[in-house]
Amino acid sequence: MARSMVIKVTAGSDAPERCNQAFTVAAAAVASGVPVSLWLTGESAWYGLPGRAEELALPHATPLADLLDVVLTGGRVTVCTQCAARRDITQDDLIDGVRIAGASTFVEEVLGDQVQALVY
Fold this sequence. Notes:
This protein has 120 residues and is of the alpha/beta class. Helices cover 34% and strands 21% of the residues.
């Protein structure tokens, strides 16, 4: 069985470098053929909405929107249930291909065989 990665991003515009780094790792893993599950929690939950990733600008970094597109083509993107609720984000608000799921789903993914989990 192939190894996979679960990446949890907690930062958004409040810590753009940390946020972009998580998306960069996720996109690089997808580009390498690694199954990736990217979890958007806390302030990064906003990046599950159309147009929001374009708002994050970080010098000398690949645009967040481009990284998100890569992850969506070959991985899974999830917005935390509680984080979405606190921000009044619903499934209908999200980019196609992004889902809302909770802690039990996160735990299930992290405990899968051959999984590498990272938190940013």
